[in-house]
C-alpha cells in the first residue's frame, strides 16, 4: 500500500467521521430545541389556563354576592374581588398559543424571554389578586355557612385572624416558590438555546 492509497483511506475515514460528528451535533441541537419547546409550552399552557380561569373566578365572586345581600361590606368585597380577577384576565391577554411549526431557534428564545419577563412583571399583581379573591370569597362563604361576620366581632376575638393569617402566609410562600420555579426553568431553556445559537455561529 503506497502513500497515496493511505492518504485516500485516511481522507475517506475523516469524511465519514466529520459526517458522524455533524449528524450528532444536529441531533443534540434538535433534542435541546425540542426540550426547550416542550418545557416552555407546558408552562405557557398553564398560564393561559390560569388566565381563562380568572373569568370563572370573577363570575363566582359575582354569584356569591347573592349569598350575602344582607351585608353591604361583603357585597363590596366580592365586587372588588371580581374586578381584580377581570383585571388579571386582561393583564395576561398577551399570553397566546405559539405556532411552533414556524418558529426558529432565535424566535423560540425570544418567546421564552418575553414570557419570563411577563411572569416576573405580573407576579406581584397575581399574588395580590389571589389574596384579595381568597379573602373576599372565603369570608363571604364562612358568613353564609355559619354566620361568622368579620365586621361584627368582639374586640378580643383574634383566633380567626391568626388562622387566616397563617393560611395567607402559606399561600404567599407557595406562590413565590411557583414563580421561582417558573423563572428557573425558563432561564434554563433560554440559556440552552443561547448555547446552541452560539455554537451555530462559531
What does it look like?
With 202 residues, the protein is mostly helical. The chain has one domain (3-199). The chain contains four helices and no strands. It has helices spanning 3-64, 72-91, 105-146, 159-201. The longest helix is centred in the first third of the chain and has 62 residues, at 3-64.
List low-pLDDT spans.
none
Determine Rg (CA atoms, Å): 27 Å
Helical content class: over 70%
The helix-and-strand class reads mainly alpha
Report, as a whole number of angstroms, the end-to-end distance: 39 Å
Q: Quick one: overall form?
A: elongated
How many structural domains in the coordinates?
1
Q: Report the biggest beta sheet as strand number plus sense, adding barrel if it closes.
A: none
- Please report which band the strand proportion falls in: under 5%, 5-15%, 15-25%, 25-35%, 35-45% or over 45%: under 5%
Overall strand count? 0
Mean pLDDT level: 77
- SSE pattern, N- to C-terminal: HHHH
Q: Count the helices. How many?
A: 4
Amino acid at each position: 500500500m503506497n502513500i497515496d492509497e493511505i492518504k485516500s483511506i485516511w481522507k475517506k475515514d475523516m469524511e465519514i467521521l466529520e459526517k458522524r460528528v455533524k449528524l450528532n451535533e444536529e441531533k443534540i441541537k434538535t433534542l435541546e430545541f425540542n426540550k426547550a419547546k416542550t418545557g416552555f409550552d407546558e408552562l405557557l399552557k398553564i398560564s393561559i389556563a390560569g388566565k381563562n380561569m380568572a373569568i370563572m373566578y370573577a363570575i363566582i365572586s359575582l354569584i356569591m354576592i347573592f349569598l350575602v345581600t344582607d351585608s353591604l361590606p361583603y357585597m363590596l368585597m366580592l365586587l372588588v374581588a371580581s374586578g381584580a380577577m377581570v383585571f388579571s384576565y386582561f393583564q395576561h391577554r398577551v399570553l397566546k398559543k405559539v405556532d411552533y411549526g414556524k418558529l426558529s431557534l432565535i424566535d423560540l428564545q425570544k418567546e421564552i424571554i418575553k414570557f419570563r419577563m411577563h411572569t416576573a412583571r405580573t407576579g406581584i399583581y397575581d399574588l395580590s389578586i389571589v389574596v384579595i379573591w381568597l379573602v373576599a370569597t372565603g369570608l363571604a362563604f364562612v358568613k353564609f355557612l355559619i354566620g361568622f361576620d368579620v365586621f361584627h366581632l368582639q374586640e378580643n376575638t383574634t383566633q380567626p385572624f391568626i388562622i387566616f393569617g397563617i393560611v395567607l402566609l402559606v399561600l404567599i410562600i407557595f406562590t413565590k416558590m411557583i414563580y421561582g420555579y417558573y423563572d428557573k426553568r425558563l432561564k434554563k431553556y433560554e440559556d440552552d438555546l443561547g448555547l446552541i445559537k452560539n455554537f451555530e455561529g462559531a
